[in-house]
Design a protein that fits this description.
single chain, mainly alpha, flat
Length: about 300
């Protein structure tokens, strides 16, 4: 009984860490335009729209966070093998992983922006200095909490995978959760607020992203502010639920039904979420319907 209570407590703590990680990951990726609309940010100067939006996307979020979390988990695992305190090892390892992330972000921005020189898109050094450090800060929170979560799985729950392997699995899962959940709240909505909601992005509007604020040009930091309201929390809840439900069913039902209990509960959870998703989709279509022009709606 005590082991089950300990397992449930660790599961709750891991879920909380995952929630923080998901929110930080989505905010970091959106500030750096690594999410869905990065192609439009890259396209904008070619269409005549010079901007100050930071763009560090040279890969999707899942492989990027798979790399950074794996570096953090692997280095922490090596430090702990030498007898270092686990908390100190995770902090130092996460800092080293974020150094790699910073180099990745800076070179990606310089490389992608320099390739647009023929379209008169300048490289803004002040943007490079200010936004890179902000993405590194958010990435540190995401990597530190994810590596800590992996350590809890390994040390407290006795997961058979070593820490670096857990870092690969959950780093990719973290990036996938942020990419799938957070981007719709930020990408097309934030970058295309000049377009009518639900109208999509017509070819004639390609690259016509939001570039100006109430006073002067916008930078990617504004996207972080916007993401913190919707996309970040949504991504955090998504990743937190994934981690909590995954660990919860394993802790409580692993020994049931000859070892099949956790698998059966996992299938039941998937079916429940499929039913909920289908209900929400049909409810939304019934109540809001397809997008129509203003003339058609008023007719």
């Amino acid at each position: 009984m005590e082991s089950i209570l300990l397992g449930v407590g660790v599961t709750a703590l891991a879920g909380a860490l995952a929630t923080v990680a998901g929110a930080a990951e989505d905010t970091e990726s959106n500030i750096g335009s690594q999410g869905d609309p990065n192609s439009q940010v890259q396209l904008a100067p070619q269409m005549g729209y010079i901007h100050r939006i930071y763009n560090k996307a040279v890969s999707g979020e899942p492989p990027a966070y798979g790399l950074w979390v794996t570096i953090g988990a692997g280095v922490a695992w090596a430090f702990m093998a030498t007898g270092m305190n686990p908390v100190l090892a995770i902090v130092i390892a996460s800092s080293l992983a974020i150094f790699v992330q910073g180099v990745y972000a800076a070179t990606a921005y310089l490389g992608r922006t320099s390739s647009l020189a023929k379209f008169e898109q300048p490289v803004y050094i002040d943007l490079l200095k200010s936004v890179t450090s902000v993405t590194m800060a958010h990435a540190f929170v995401a990597v530190f909490t994810t590596v800590s979560m992996c350590y809890l799985m390994n040390a407290a729950l006795g997961h058979p995978f070593p820490l670096p392997l857990l870092g690969i699995v959950w780093g990719i899962a973290l990036g996938a959760a942020g990419s799938a959940t957070g981007n719709p709240f930020y990408g097309k909505e934030r970058q295309y607020q000049s377009q009518m909601f639900g109208a999509g992005v017509p070819i004639s509007a390609s690259g016509n992203i939001v570039r100006y604020a109430e006073a002067g040009q916008r930078s990617s930091l504004d996207n972080g502010w916007f993401t913190a309201k919707l996309g970040g929390p949504a991504s955090g809840v998504c990743f937190g639920l994934i981690v909590f439900l995954e660990l919860w069913r394993t802790v409580l039902f692993e020994e049931a039904v000859g070892g099949w209990g956790a698998i059966i509960v996992g299938v039941i959870i998937i079916l429940i979420f499929m039913i909920i998703d289908r209900y929400i989709e049909t409810w939304a279509r019934k109540n809001y319907g397809p997008y129509t022009n203003a003339e058609e709606a008023s007719a």
